[in-house]
């Protein structure tokens, strides 16, 4: 059944929390991996899935910080992973595959936003590398476990930031053009959506469906590279509390800021809800499939056509294979 980028009117809303999105769903016996699942939206995603009965594996660059954050959440396993390091990705995936478990949910949640120009050891721009290429390689390495689940779902966290830039296939790593950290972030978030489009097309035959998610505007550590001037433009301050909602700007009051629990809702909905059976390759937000934005629309609620273009999705797949040297098993 082909996917369709149009709202399905799920009955949920922007204020829905992750626990509400999972109400009535029993994940006992299911395994999930949540990258970045020890902070911000990722931590709430981990908590909600675990409370619903899933075993959640949380890979982290800083294992000590992860262990402290995950605390007493039940059914959580923790391991090391650096998405900028191909060897680290392979080691993590190999260890999981050695457990001979099916993987029912892979939530590619981790990411970075708008840092100064930084490159990985291959010379690749860090946002494109961590936000997309690292998750591309991780998903490829975990493919056997996803296939063995006979009904796996893959969720990649994008952002309305995808509207800042499409893919530059000629110079994705800013080797010739001047580096713009926000354009680089937008490109990486567009890549997250395009990845879901082509991943879903390729995975459907193996009962693997893929989704891209905009979690909403949530105050997390993702904004640590924002300047004071940039924070001021959004009516924020440097000492803002992670997970807080600016006064009068909550989605419940007609604003656009969500709590962490609300921010995790669309991720867990895409990963688990039977409303999405037979669907995939779509961009979701506010616990529903988003609408397509016309090119001249000033709205930031929805997805741009260039981010769900099948031809661009195939081009990104080919580029990702070339840059990582990794291919998915047939």
Folded structure, characterized:
It is a single chain. The protein has 330 residues and is α/β, with parallel strands linked by helices. It has one domain: Rossmann fold (3-Layer(aba) Sandwich), CATH 3.40.50.720. Helix content is 35%, strand content 14%. The strands form three sheets. An eight-stranded mixed beta sheet has the order 3-2-1-4-5-6-9-10, sandwiched between helices. The chain has a two-stranded parallel sheet with strand order 7-8. Strand 1, helix 2 and strand 2 form a beta-alpha-beta unit. It starts with 17 loop residues before the first helix and ends in a 6-residue tail after the last helix. The model has no long low-confidence stretch (mean pLDDT 95).
What is the compact description of this entry?
This protein has 330 residues and is an alpha/beta fold.
Describe the structure using short key phrases.
12 strands, 330 residues, two-stranded parallel sheet, alpha/beta, Rossmann fold, 8-stranded mixed sheet, 11 helices
């Amino acid at each position: 059944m082909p996917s369709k980028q149009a709202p399905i009117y799920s009955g949920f809303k922007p204020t829905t929390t992750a626990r509400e999105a999972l109400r009535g769903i029993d994940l006992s016996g299911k395994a999930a991996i949540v990258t970045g699942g020890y902070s911000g939206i990722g931590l709430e995603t981990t908590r909600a899935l675990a409370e619903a009965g899933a075993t959640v594996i949380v890979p982290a660059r800083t294992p000590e910080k992860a262990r402290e954050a995950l605390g007493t959440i039940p059914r959580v396993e923790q391991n090391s992973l650096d998405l900028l390091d191909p060897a680290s990705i392979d080691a993590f995936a190999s260890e999981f595959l050695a457990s001979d478990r099916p993987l029912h949910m892979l939530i590619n949640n981790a990411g970075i936003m708008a840092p100064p120009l930084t490159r990985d050891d291959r010379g690749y721009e860090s946002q494109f590398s961590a936000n997309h290429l690292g998750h591309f390689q991780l998903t490829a390495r975990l493919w056997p476990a996803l296939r063995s689940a006979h009904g796996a779902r893959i969720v990649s966290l994008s952002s309305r930031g995808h509207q800042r830039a499409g893919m530059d296939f000629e110079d994705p790593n800013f080797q010739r053009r001047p580096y713009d950290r926000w354009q680089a972030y937008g490109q990486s978030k567009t890549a997250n959506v395009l990845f879901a489009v082509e991943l879903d097309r390729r995975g459907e035959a193996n009962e693997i469906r893929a989704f891209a998610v905009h979690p909403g505007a949530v105050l997390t550590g993702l904004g640590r590279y924002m300047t004071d001037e940039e924070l001021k433009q959004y009516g924020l301050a440097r000492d803002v509390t992670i997970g807080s909602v600016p006064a009068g700007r909550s989605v419940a009051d007609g604003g656009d800021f969500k709590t962490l629990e609300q921010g995790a809702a669309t991720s867990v909905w895409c990963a688990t809800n039977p409303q999405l059976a037979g669907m995939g390759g779509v961009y979701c937000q506010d616990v529903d499939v988003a609408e397509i934005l016309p090119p001249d629309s000033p709205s930031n609620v929805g997805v741009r056509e260039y981010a769900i273009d099948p031809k661009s999705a195939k081009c990104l797949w080919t580029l990702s294979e070339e840059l990582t040297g990794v291919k998915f098993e047939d």
